Amino acid sequence: MIEAIGLVKEYGDHVAVDHLNFTVEKGQILGFLGPNGAGKSTTMNMLTGYISATEGTILVNGYDMLEEPELAKKSIGYLPEQPPVYPDMTVTEYLKFVTELKKVPRKDREQEVERVIEVTQLQEMRNRLTQHLSKGYRQRVGIAQALIGNPEVIILDEPTVGLDPKQIIEIRDLMRSLAKEHTVLLSSHIMQEISAVCDHIMIISHGKLVLSGTPEELQKKANQGENLELEVLGTKEQVNGVLNSVASFKDVIEIPSEKENGYAVRIMSNEDVREALFFAFAKANLPIVKLVRNTKTLEDIFLEATSEAGEPVAEDKTQEESITEHMTKEAAEHDSDL
Length: 338
Hints:
Blueprint: E1 2-11, E2 14-24, E3 29-33, H1 40-47, E4 55-60, E5 63-64, H2 69-74, E6 76-79, H3 91-101, H4 109-119, H5 135-147, E7 153-157, H6 165-178, E8 183-187, H7 191-197, E9 200-205, E10 208-213, H8 215-222, E11 226-233, H9 236-246, E12 251-255, E13 262-269, H10 274-283, E14 288-293, H11 298-309, H12 317-337
Parallel strand pairs: 3-8, 3-9, 6-7, 7-8
Antiparallel strand pairs: 1-2, 1-4, 4-5, 9-10, 11-13, 11-14, 12-13
């Protein structure tokens, strides 16, 4: 549904996106992750056609963004981090305005407004000015405008930032329901959200793809083998004797014990040895008082992946001015084409 091939974006001497390749399948919810300055927003701006790529190809629903921009953009609904709502319009007035912008046939506009209001559960807010809505409802209005025209692809940039826990759960449920009929690309810094909603994750750093896979695949890859913390009521010699009888471990490191008569270790193993440890220490009459399996979270995986790639270096003033100048120029060119 979305395919990026050799995507490059340069702002003067600064490379924001560096030969990025990825595919988003139909009906998939893709979590798009990366540190600040990694190139996420630049990539999404290119995917939506707001800015052009320096090199590479973007295909949306089979349409080339460069060769067939109108058809490609028609296939996309986009919610930027700040919902593009007008404070002096009611929800219904604003959504009718969007149907005009998106060239929905006049006879279908009222029905289309009703459809997106129902999908985003805005019925009770339809006659309120958007400036009087809570942030959660403004996000819903932003998602509603993205759904106008029933595009195949929905791109959401930080859709739950600043929301309270109840609103976050509601927006997550909405995103899951959208995936039944749309392909969803979600950018977020909230790892809980990504793991709860997305069925595929892509992590970039310095504009390059550093990790990609399902949450389960990334967890399995990151947690190969076993990392256990074991504490036993016994002496060092007794514990090590039992450990040597169980298996050959990659590493056994002594750690501080919480018990005065206990001995604690951290064990690295290529296989799950918890059951074998239990029976071996039971046979030796040495009580296990602690057995903890340490696993890496999605946040750990993200930090490792981006650290290995190198943390983005803050741009100096010249680079920032160059980026702003290029984006202003491209936005002006974009507006002149409309």
